[in-house]
Specification:
This protein is 78% helix and 1% strand. It is an all-alpha fold. It has one domain (30-500). The protein is globular and about 70 Å long.
Length: 504
């Protein structure tokens, strides 16, 4: 018996080590900040980055086999490891941007450092969740820390308002999610994904309870990914939160939301595919269209990118719709449907990677352009002439915006190409056309900022703040945006392999 338990324990311990590293790192940062008085505040950033890099190295070195952990509560696979790498990378970039701003202004937020680690821990748990209770645990761990990050800038009314709105609306979304879980539990007789999957395959789940429960859970997931009509928090919170937190929320929080949404939709597809397909199709069209149309009239760059984030959630939803599109015909078409689903899933992963790079580059520049402490570089008109004052910063921001618009040879173009290709292969031509039209509409509001930077004369009130570590970091991210746009094949193939390893 001991010989059986010890190898199982060793396997679980190796798979859980990245989570333990991040959790222990968060506690360590708190202790160091509280008791090591000789340490400079900016040194906490180095500790955070060491912890996040250690979590990546641990996963690369141990490479545990795909398996369920903790009696089925968590699952480890290439799919979950992909998101762990993505969360850690976003965390490192966010820490660099935040610390650069703290150093420049001389106003530190030491609570930022443990909170960023606990937020990432919640995201890692959420992406690996294999039980309804684990979903709730990961979601709340991520959310509670994010509420404080968004609203915790002392003395800043906009930040406090953003945090309060996010907290109140997030509480409502969590209530919907928990109620939905209760209905799913009642319909299937358990909370584990394995049990739910077997119940659905056998057609034993109570259809009404299951439909109602999954619908309520979709409200909770939709809130996190900024899906219309659950997006109402996005523009105010993105505008009020500090730019480095806004970039973190627009990338890592959205990626975590889509990680669990994709897994849950695939899990429930056998019995609910006919429900998911029309519902998500309508929501995808609404999300794309509302986000892009309202972004057209924004004069505040953070609010513009907030509505842009809503629109990109709509594009990603097209991939989810493609995975659950009904199959018609014999076994050969069923096989083709599986291949299309894999193409859509890999496109979602590639899109999330590219989207994270271009958003982090954009918000990294926005974060440091203001001259006065507490001010945000958010008025598009005041970006006039930036290319002549700070050519590197303007170039990095321009690359990020062109990529968000889907202009070649940026990664945003290839991400949309792979996504729309999967949609077309599934025969969803109207959805693909709507997606392309929305992408063309978005070019206008992204180009407004570029025109201001390169074709308008700056005034005395124009932004010209700088912090060179952040500018160089954004420049590196912009270079990666171009590189992935020119050489996407290897990363896209890797995304396909990763998606095939999705586990339940």
């Amino acid at each position: 018996m001991n010989e059986i338990l010890i190898p199982a324990f060793s396997r679980d311990a190796a798979a859980l080590l990245p989570y333990l590293v991040v959790a222990g790192g968060g506690l360590l940062v708190m202790v160091v900040d509280a008791f090591v008085r000789t340490l400079k505040k900016d040194h906490l950033s180095y500790l955070v980055m060491v912890v996040l890099l250690a979590s990546i190295i641990v996963q690369l070195v141990t490479r545990p086999a795909d398996a369920t952990l903790l009696n089925g509560m968590l699952v480890t696979s290439d799919f979950t490891r992909f998101f762990n790498y993505l969360f850690a990378g976003i965390g490192v970039m966010t820490t660099i941007f935040a610390t650069g701003l703290f150093d420049r202004n001389g106003r530190y937020r030491p609570e930022f450092y443990p909170l960023i680690l606990f937020t990432i821990l919640g995201m890692m748990v959420l992406a690996a969740a294999n039980d309804l209770m684990t979903i709730f645990l990961g979601l709340e761990t991520m959310s509670l820390a994010t509420y404080i990050l968004a609203g915790g800038v002392r003395g800043n009314l906009r930040s406090s308002e953003a945090g309060f709105k996010y907290l109140v609306l997030g509480g409502f979304s969590s209530a919907f999610l928990l109620m939905g879980m209760a209905f799913v539990f009642g319909a299937c007789g358990g909370t584990g994904f394995g049990l739910i999957g077997r119940t659905l395959e056998n057609g034993q789940a109570h259809q009404a309870f299951l439909s109602l429960g999954t619908g309520l859970m979709l409200v909770g997931f939709g809130f996190k990914v900024a899906m219309v009509p659950f997006h109402m928090w996005t523009p105010d919170v993105y505008d009020g939160a500090p730019a480095y937190i806004t970039g973190f929320m627009a990338t890592a929080v959205k990626a975590a939301g889509f990680a669990i949404l994709v897994r849950f939709v695939i899990l429930t597809q056998p019995q609910l595919g006919f429900v998911w397909y029309p519902l998500l199709s309508v929501l995808a069209v609404l999300t794309m269209s509302v986000g892009n149309v309202i972004a057209l009239v924004q004069g505040n760059i953070k609010r513009m990118l907030a509505w842009s984030s809503v629109a990109h959630a709509g594009y990603l939803l097209l991939g989810v719709v493609t995975m659950v599109a009904p199959s018609v015909g014999g076994p050969s078409l069923m096989v083709r449907s599986s291949e299309i689903g894999e193409a859509a899933g890999s496109a979602i992963l590639f899109y999330l990677l590219g989207y994270s790079l271009m958003n982090l580059a954009a918000f990294g520049i926005i974060n440091i352009l203001s001259r006065d402490p507490g001010e945000e570089a958010d008025e598009i008109a005041r970006y006039a002439g930036l290319s002549r004052r700070q050519p590197l910063a303007a170039a990095a921001l321009a690359v990020a915006l062109l990529s968000l618009a889907g202009i070649p040879p940026m990664v945003g173009f290839m991400a949309k190409f792979y996504l729309f290709s999967a949609v077309i292969q599934a025969g969803l031509i109207p959805l693909a056309i709507i997606g392309v039209i929305n992408s063309l509409v978005s070019v206008y509001y992204y180009l407004r900022v570029i025109v201001a930077m390169y074709m308008q004369d700056g005034e005395d009130a124009s932004y010209d703040g700088t912090e060179w570590v952040s500018v160089i970091t954004s420049g590196v991210l912009a270079a990666l945006v171009v590189y992935l746009g020119v050489m996407p094949d290897a990363f896209h193939r890797a995304a396909l392999i990763v998606f095939r390893q999705i586990q339940f």
